[in-house]
């Protein structure tokens, strides 16, 4: 990318993203990878979810690479700190790629700071909350930087997109967004001049999606994810765009970036425009897709901006302060995302546990068993529905209790409030972040 050690603006942007990641908020889509990674580390490719008592036989484990990485980091850094290190590193890689790409587009160095700040503000959860999507955060930015570079000066380097897609496909399902972005560039930005090369790269990239341990079973995995109950209900990570605080920030940042690109331009290339329209539609359906929209919109916005570069000494000083803050946060480690003590207690009972997502994954981390948890697409649809209804505190989910011996819940959650008044349950322990019940 042509980044030199004396380029403080790029390193400031990277330090900012790393600091956000080091805040270390453990999400509901992170801990489950560690126990699965342990099986992979011992040479066993799971065909079911080993810590779950509900039937999962025949599950296709496509993101095995992510599980192995999470397991290795968890043990290398003494627990959850390893996952936060990964989040901070992914954010830094994402913003290094973004800043390096924007520096070639921007009319002034100030845009290389201003535009990533907008991206960070509009997609704060993607950078702060630790989840398996951290891999996509880094790889989408790297792929985008490659394609924008190719759009300026076409070369054979576009073939680098194929190994990026192959790696990505072993880590996270958002690789499909990467394939869509690549298709937009090749079909609308390259095919007219180099049709053979464009078809070849696109075909190779599509084949690369299958380059994971599940090979030809890969489509079944994606079908299960896209047709899961949470996906169809639009809950959890699949929530549509709404009127919450983070959604408003996302829409505001997107409006500013697109507004700059249009009013001061237009500076949007055809392939970028089509990709932005597709990502905008996807964001309305699934709000977290907005991160990819903001990253892509950054490039045409940077072309239109003319901002004076900040002082190098000030930028360098801020980068050092943020770097020191990141190290301090990582040394401290993340807060308990649920209740370690109760999860250990529930795991020691040996009985199946019904639990909120994070608490249940903590039980699995400590060698216990849960009925249903993430990855929820691995379970039968009827069990998914029952579990999701139980999480929502609906009467239709009450039957989930009959499948377990213990219930571990956050008392402030909907399931926790319902459990408090459930006559079938006897409270046996409580701690900050959780209450453990035994089924009578």
- Structural class given helices, strands, pairing? mainly alpha
Strand percentage lies at 5-15%
Uncertain residue segments = 1-6
- How many beta-strand segments? 6
List the helices and strands in order: HEHHHHHEHHHHHHHHHHHEHHEHEE
Summarize the biggest pleated sheet: 4 strands, mixed
Gross morphology is globular
Tell me what you see in this structure.
The chain has 440 residues and is mainly alpha-helical. The protein folds into 2 domains: 8-312, no CATH class; 340-439. The protein has 20 helices and 6 strands. A 4-stranded mixed sheet has the order 3-4-6-5, sandwiched between helices. Strands 1-2 form a two-stranded parallel ribbon. The longest helix has 26 residues, at 80-105. The N and C termini lie far apart (62 Å). The model is unreliable at 1-6 (pLDDT under 50).
Descriptors:
440 residues; mainly alpha; two-stranded parallel ribbon
Topology:
Layout: H1 8-22, E1 25-26, H2 33-41, H3 64-76, H4 80-105, H5 111-122, H6 124-128, E2 129-130, H7 134-152, H8 161-169, H9 175-190, H10 195-208, H11 218-226, H12 229-233, H13 245-263, H14 270-285, H15 290-304, H16 312-332, H17 340-349, E3 353-355, H18 357-365, H19 381-391, E4 406-409, H20 414-420, E5 425-431, E6 434-439
Parallel strand pairs: 1-2, 3-4
Antiparallel strand pairs: 4-6, 5-6
Overview in brief:
The chain is 59% helix and 5% strand. By secondary structure, it is mainly α.
């Amino acid at each position: 990318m042509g980044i030199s050690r004396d380029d403080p603006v790029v390193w400031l942007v990277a330090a900012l993203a790393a600091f956000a990641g080091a805040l270390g908020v453990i999400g509901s889509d992170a801990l489950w990878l560690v126990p699965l990674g342990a099986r992979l580390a011992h040479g066993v490719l799971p065909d079911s979810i080993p810590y779950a008592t509900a039937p999962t036989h025949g599950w296709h484990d496509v993101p095995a690479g992510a599980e192995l990485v999470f397991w290795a980091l968890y043990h290398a850094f003494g627990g959850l700190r390893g996952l936060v290190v990964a989040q901070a590193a992914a954010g830094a890689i994402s913003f290094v790629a973004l800043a390096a790409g924007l520096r070639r587009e921007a009319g002034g160095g100030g845009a290389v700071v201003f535009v990533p700040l907008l991206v960070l503000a509009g997609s704060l959860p993607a950078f702060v909350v630790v989840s398996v999507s951290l891999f996509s955060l880094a790889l989408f930015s790297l792929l985008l930087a490659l394609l924008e570079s190719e759009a300026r000066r076409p070369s054979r380097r576009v073939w680098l997109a194929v190994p990026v897609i192959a790696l990505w496909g072993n880590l996270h399902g958002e690789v499909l967004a990467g394939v869509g972005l690549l298709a937009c560039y090749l079909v609308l930005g390259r095919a007219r001049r180099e049709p053979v090369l464009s078809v070849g790269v696109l075909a190779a990239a599509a084949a690369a999606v299958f380059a994971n341990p599940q090979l030809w079973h890969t489509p079944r995995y994606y079908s299960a994810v896209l047709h899961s109950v949470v996906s169809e209900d639009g809950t959890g990570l699949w929530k549509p765009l709404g009127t919450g605080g983070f959604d408003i920030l996302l829409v505001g940042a997107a409006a500013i970036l697109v507004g700059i690109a249009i009013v001061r331009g237009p500076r949007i290339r055809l392939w970028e425009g089509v990709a932005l329209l597709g990502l905008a539609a996807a964001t309305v359906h699934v709000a977290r897709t907005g991160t990819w929209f903001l990253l892509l919109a950054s490039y045409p916005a940077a072309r239109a901006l003319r901002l004076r570069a900040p002082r190098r000494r000030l930028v360098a000083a801020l980068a050092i302060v943020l770097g020191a803050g990141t190290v301090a946060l990582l040394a401290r480690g993340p807060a308990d995302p649920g209740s370690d003590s109760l999860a250990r207690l529930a795991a020691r009972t040996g009985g199946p546990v019904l639990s909120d997502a994070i608490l249940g994954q903590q039980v699995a981390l400590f060698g216990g068993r849960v009925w249903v948890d993430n990855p929820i697409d691995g379970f039968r649809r009827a069990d998914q529905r029952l579990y999701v209804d139980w999480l929502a505190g609906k009467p239709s989910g009450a039957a989930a209790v009959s499948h377990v011996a213990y219930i571990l819940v956050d008392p402030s959650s909907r399931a926790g409030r319902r459990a408090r008044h459930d006559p079938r349950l006897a409270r046996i322990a409580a701690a900050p972040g959780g209450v453990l019940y035994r089924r009578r």
